[in-house]
Write a structure and sequence with these properties.
By secondary structure, the chain is mostly beta strands. The protein has a single domain, classed as TolA/TonB C-terminal domain (2-Layer Sandwich). The protein contains 2 helices and 10 strands, in the order E-E-E-E-H-E-E-H-E-E-E-E. The strands form 3 sheets. Strands 1, 2, 5, 6 and 10 form a 5-stranded antiparallel sheet that branches. Strands 3-8-9 form a 3-stranded antiparallel sheet, with no helix packed on it. Strand 5 and strand 6 form a beta hairpin. It is elongated.
Length: about 120
């Protein structure tokens, strides 16, 4: 894991907060998950060697403990980047989303951009 393998831009997009139908309660206050740790994805060796850039959008649910669950690829410019993107996001940790001061499961998507021009 040298410096040349750790360059990808990270951006979070909250898609929605999941609620159980039996728990219909007026929402007085809510907050979105906040990333407290983001592992950087490794740039795939072969893609770096060939000078190929790419992007993978990963979808997942942040659980009530702030752990990403049920990760999946929403879209990808090249399948070779997918394992690194999924592996990286699986290690992330969040302050969970909150509704009425209680942690809730929150659906999110994040694009990870692998830019060959940013590799040292």
């Amino acid at each position: 894991m040298g410096n040349n393998t750790n360059h990808a831009f990270l951006c979070l997009a909250v898609i929605g907060i999941l609620f159980a139908p039996c728990c219909a309660v007026p929402i007085h206050s809510s907050s979105q998950p906040v990333a407290i740790f983001q592992a950087r994805p490794q740039y795939p060796f072969e893609m770096r060697r060939q000078g190929i850039s790419g992007e993978v959008t990963v979808g997942f649910i942040v659980d009530a403990e702030g752990v990403p669950r049920e990760l999946y690829v929403v879209k990808s410019s090249n399948k070779a980047f997918e394992p690194s993107a999924l592996n990286s996001v699986s290690k992330w940790r969040f302050r969970p989303g909150m509704v009425n001061e209680k942690p809730v499961y929150t659906r999110m998507q994040v694009p990870l951009v692998f830019n060959i021009n940013d590799v040292n």
